Amino acid sequence: MTQQKLQSKDSVNTDAILVINCGSSSIKFCLIKPATGETLLSGLAECLLSPEAKITIKRDGEKQSYKLPDAFDHQTALSVLVEQLQQLNLVKDISAIGHRVVHGGEHYSQPTLITTEVEQSISQLAKLAPLHNPAHLIGIKACQEAFENLPQVAVFDTAFHQSIPEKAYIYGLPYSLYKDHAIRRYGFHGTSHYFVAKQAAKQLKKPLAQCNLISAHLGNGCSVTVIKNGESVDTSMGMTPGEGVMMGTRCGDIDAGIIFHLVDNLGYSIADVNKLLNKESGLLGVSGLSNDCRTLENAMLEDNHVQATLALTVFCYRIAKSIASYSASLTQLDGLIFTGGIGENSSWIRAEIVKQLGLLNFSLDEEKNQATRFGASGNIATKSSRACLVIATNEEWVIAEQSAQLLTNLAK
Ligand code: AMP
Q1: How high is the pLDDT of residue 13?
Q2: CA of 31 to the centre of ligand 1 (A)
Q3: How far is the CA of 163 from the centre of ligand 1 (A)?
Q4: Which atom from ligand 1 is nearest to the alpha carbon of 292?
């Protein structure tokens, strides 16, 4: 498939899209109906290329795990998936593969049919996303072999943020670094922020293009995005997902001088600093206990664990500060959205963040806040507050919808 036009089809069957999110040792997959979001099958192949390799497939509420032989790679994991899909007679329903691709740089603001040139661009953008884009290419190649007749679509995590203005994406660095080396803010979690903004518009009974929102995606990675008239106008993550609020194991914003101090005076190599800032910091680093909010909340509430309390307090303060800072981007604000594993489930963290946002006229209804967890969604604010919406994100559905839409447009 090397042309930006689909051939030999009068109308495109977009019954179901297989959504693939490929990491360096894992493949998340989900067969989904783009029109309704109904999931026909989902699962995860994990620990690929290691002795613990396994694949788990969920269908109709039932889960089956298969241990895979040691040398199992992405290609062979996909062949197990294809076999299962064939046995379940689902292959005939798949009209395309939609790939989550983390970095689309400045070039990709829309879902894109994957051609040889697009693959080359994703590969070149690996400079900006070394942990993600190479893994996505492995998944794309494996899917091209496993589903050779199906179109493959890339949906970029950075795409929703391509609307942010220059004043928000230019760093205070020599301008030549932007012009010559594309060093700028890109932002991530775009597919999630877009999905929850669309859902918020429905709940607020307004067209998305008239909605002004601040969206907090709080999961293992965390980012805050400000949405003006339905478009992203600023976001906390930067050239990489390391910038912004504190996260599970990433530090978020720090004084760049700390890096020089670590290298010049404390014996760290650049590789050590990279590991420290991305894998050993954040909630894990401050608490010394865990990056998982559930563990930290239990330690704080049940054992009075001092560092767990400090980690959660810093986490919430920095998110509240980030949300408040976005009042500079808006003249109106309809509401705040919480999403991601933490945003959807932790009533303690939501309460701790919102109590620091009184000046923006946010306050939570305690009962509604407690009740809105584990997949529930709704407005948890008091009557006098601006809306505080808890919305379960569904990036897979957006990828399926956008892939189907692209195929329909290309077939016209
Ligand atoms: P995600 O990356 O969106 O899957 O979010 C994963 C994070 O959500 C985990 O690391 C947990 O910290 C957090 N999480 C999931 N469930 C809960 C819960 N019930 N309470 C607090 N945090 C939770």
Answers
A1: 62
A2: 24
A3: 29
A4: 12
Give the domain ranges of the chain: 16-156, 205-395
Q: How many CB atoms lie within 10 A of CB 25?
A: 16
Q: Residues lining ligand 1, judged by CB closer than 6 Å?
A: 219-220, 248, 292-294, 340-342, 345-346
In this chain, the answer to whether the domains covering 16-156 and 205-395 adopt an identical fold is yes
Instruction: Supply the CATH classification number for the domain 205-395.
Output: 3.30.420.40
Q: How many CB atoms lie within 10 A of CB 202?
A: 12
Atom nearest to 393 CA in ligand 1: 3
Count how many residues are written for the chain: 412
CATH of domain 16-156: 3.30.420.40
Q: Tell me if residue 198 falls in helix, strand or coil.
A: helix
> What does the DSSP 8-state code read for residue 71?
T
Is 272 labeled as catalytic in the residue annotation? no
- Which residue type does 331 have? T
Q: Percent helix, strand and coil across the chain, each rounded to 5?
A: 45, 20, 40
* H or E segment to which residue 340 belongs: helix 340-345
Ligand 1 atom nearest residue 295's Cα: 12
pLDDT single digits (tens) 95-128: 999 999 999 999 999 999 999 999 999 999 999 9
pLDDT value at position 12? 55
Residues of the chain above pLDDT 90, percent: 82
Task: Enter the pTM of the model.
Answer: 0.94
